[in-house]
Amino acid sequence: MTSTTDANTDTAGATDTPGASGTYGELRAQLATLTTEAFRPELAEIDRLSTEEIARIMNGEDATVPAAVAERLPQIAAAIDATAERMARGGRLIYAGAGTAGRLGVLDASECPPTFNTDPAEVVGLIAGGPSAMVTAVEGAEDSKELAAADLDALKLTADDTVVGISASGRTPYAIGAVEHARAQGALTIGLSCNADSALAAAAEHGLEVVTGPELLTGSTRLKAGTAQKLVLNMISTVTMIRLGKTYGNLMVDVRASNEKLRARSRHIVSLATGASDTAIEAALAATDGEVKNAILVILGQVDGPTAARLLTESDGHLRAALAAVRTT
């Protein structure tokens, strides 16, 4: 499957179109200022290298991405804390992007229900052009700020929501439009890009610019930039869920046991958290309709299923707080 880059740089032949030279000339000038679009002359003959040599170069390029992310950890942490505060009030986490960036947002959102037992409406991924754009490029969709606003309006955006605009270039109109519209509605806004001084970061309350530099293939931002975006989105969703009490230590206690593998994992998690016997684990899961967090509380707190459910409700789903409540009564 071939992905388009989120800068949509394929303008071959555009300057031959009557009346288009000004438009595309301006766009080419913009792209020329972006490090993600820069040409690397030292790699101009990479196609003449052996497969292993190319793979080594790619691996070396990828190894630079975590360092670029590390430079922005204070800003990322601040954005996560603000997101968690909104979500604790019932807000949603909404990703918005085009092309590769949009697909990464949809991917991260789709992983939250099985991992953290979130409702599918709690973490949402919007991609310019709609669901079909996940597998097929929808021409022109990324160029519309109005489309982004309409997509957010369809979700009935509230001031408790968080909208994360994602764009490697930092200039994609769909991502910028999503952030501008969300900010006007009072929602929290985050702009994730891979170029410095980007329009997307400037439009957002929290601008996260993870500068990964020129790509191995000129302008192919599904490479280092895409990897950086994936790492940051992993942080945003995972750390937010930790802050919301979706984990106990590093255990996924809100995992949804929707298949045999996850049912086995559920039992393993209860075992790791409690050290209880298989018999006790099965009894606790039976008493809590298979809810891992509740089963742990039944065992460690020595309470029944309904009491565990009540204590967790009273503690807003935080297992440590529920255990503390048991131990103080």
TrEMBL record:
Residues in SIS domain copies: 83-246
EC number: 4.2.1.126
Enzyme category, top tier: lyase
Span list, region Disordered: 1-23
Catalytic activity: N-acetyl-D-muramate 6-phosphate + H2O = N-acetyl-D-glucosamine 6-phosphate + (R)-lactate
GO molecular function per UniProt: lyase activity
One Pfam family it belongs to: GKRP_SIS_N
Residues the record marks as active site: 111 (proton donor), 142
Entries under PROSITE patterns matching the protein: GCKR (PS01272), SIS (PS51464)
SUPFAM superfamilies tied to this protein: SIS domain
Pathway stated in the Swiss-Prot or TrEMBL entry: Amino-sugar metabolism; N-acetylmuramate degradation
Annotated keywords: Carbohydrate metabolism, Lyase
The family this protein is said to belong to: Belongs to the GCKR-like family. MurNAc-6-P etherase subfamily.
Note: A lyase-type mechanism (elimination/hydration) is suggested for the cleavage of the lactyl ether bond of MurNAc 6-phosphate, with the formation of an alpha,beta-unsaturated aldehyde intermediate with (E)-stereochemistry, followed by the syn addition of water to give product.
Subunit structure: Homodimer.
Function summary: Specifically catalyzes the cleavage of the D-lactyl ether substituent of MurNAc 6-phosphate, producing GlcNAc 6-phosphate and D-lactate.
Record's protein name: N-acetylmuramic acid 6-phosphate etherase
The organism's taxonomic lineage, starting at the top: Bacteria, Bacillati, Actinomycetota, Actinomycetes, Kitasatosporales
Gene expressing this chain: murQ
